[in-house]
UniProtKB/TrEMBL annotation:
Pfam families: DUF3562. This is DUF3562 domain-containing protein.
Amino acid sequence: MSQPEPNVDEVVRSIAEETDTPTETVSQMYADTLADYRQDARVFDYVPLFAAKKVRDQLRHSSNHKH
């Protein structure tokens, strides 16, 4: 049984708020990361979750280096 796809707008908005990053930037990063993961995936159930985690981690990591 596959997992329901998360609402992309909600995921993007959540990441943008958590990382203080413009939604346009997060949206593009999320779309690019999702495409990368889907290219090599055999099971797609958790791909959106993995993509969201990677984008969130990248933005948090980059914001830590700004301070």
